[in-house]
Amino acid sequence: MPTYEYQCLKCEHRFDLEQSFSAEAIAVCPICHGIAHRLFSAVPILFKGSGFYITDSREQGKHSFDPKEPQGKEKEK
Fold first, then answer.
1. At 33, phi and psi to the nearest 5?
2. Which residues, 6 or more positions from 53, have their beta carbon under 8 angstroms from its beta carbon?
3. SS3 for 25?
4. What value does the CA radius of gyration of the chain take, rounded to a whole number of Å?
5. Is-contact 41 5, C-beta < 8 A?
6. Cβ-Cβ contacts under 8 Å for 44 (sequence gap 6 or more)
C-alpha cells in the first residue's frame, strides 16, 4: 500500500499514513484528533531509453547538422 503525508489543520502536525488508493484524502490527527488533509509533493521524472534527445529523432542524411563543421557548408559525399 502507498504511504501518504498528511498535515493537521488544527495543530499543523505532519505524519505519514499507509492507505489504499481508494481511501479518502482526509484523516484524523494522532496528536490532537483534528482533521488532517493529504499533502501533495512533486514526483521526479526520469527519462530513460531512446527518443528523449534531439539526436535520437534525426534522420541521417544530407540535411543533418554536424556541430564539428562550420555552418553553411554542405557535407561531401
1. 65, 25
2. none
3. coil
4. 26
5. yes
6. none
pLDDT, tens digit (0-9, with 9 covering 90-100), for 23-64: 888 899 999 999 999 998 888 887 777 666 666 655 555 555
d(CA 11, CA 2): 24
Residue 6, number of CB atoms within 10 A of its CB: 21
Within a 10 A sphere around the Cβ of 27, how many other Cβ atoms? 18
Grid coordinates representing 9 are 489543520
Instruction: Check if the beta carbon of residue 37 is closer than 8 Å to that of residue 6.
Output: yes
Task: Decide if 9 contacts 22 (C-beta within 8 A).
Answer: no
Reported pTM:
0.53
Domains of the chain, each with CATH number or no CATH: 1-57 (2.20.28)
pLDDT tens-digit series, residues 9-27? 999 999 999 988 888 888 9
